[in-house]
Amino acid sequence: MNTNVSNLPAIPSQPEPTETPTLDRLTAAMPSAIDTAMREALPHRYTPELARQIADDIVRRLRKAHAPRPLTAADRGTDWMLRWNCTPWCVIDHTEKQAPEWHSTAPVETDLRDTDLDPSGFDNLPWMAARLIVANDKPQAYGRRTEVWIDYGVHTAPLTAARARQALNALRGFAAELEAVVDAAESVAADDFEGDPEIAAADREYWDRRIKKIAEAQA
Description:
five-stranded antiparallel β-sheet
């Protein structure tokens, strides 16, 4: 979405994570505030749907900023890092049963979920996520390996930093092309309309009978 929102009023400063009631009041007021601001500042671009999209995006960002942060190895201290040969940014609790021996940052994730695009999906996973991984168990024997793991739905692609850079550049190019497609779709969708449910039901009934008749003839 290539919408200029620079003319919108500044978002109030974020409250501390402990001020949940204040955050709740802020997020509850956000849709109405953004709607009013768009009507006044961007009347040529205003639609209720676009105002809601912007408000939802701001609310998601506010809540993500106030979400609990996992402990890093640096938070756990020097003894922990020496014991597990751990990187300062690793968020894996290596004392857990079956904890991996590699190290990982917390994932960055899209707000869009896999099931938002495919309701038949089995898991409510991020549409895409990425994290930095370092494998350095017994480095004298096996060396040290740094990768970027990109998750898409239930799949994971372990990439070298160079390959991850290529993937990032490809995504940037795709995003520009996708925006062009979406812009065209928004224009074409202006002529969309709902069909007649009775005619649709009659059409489905016709094809049900036809398919049944063909199946009986082939039996």
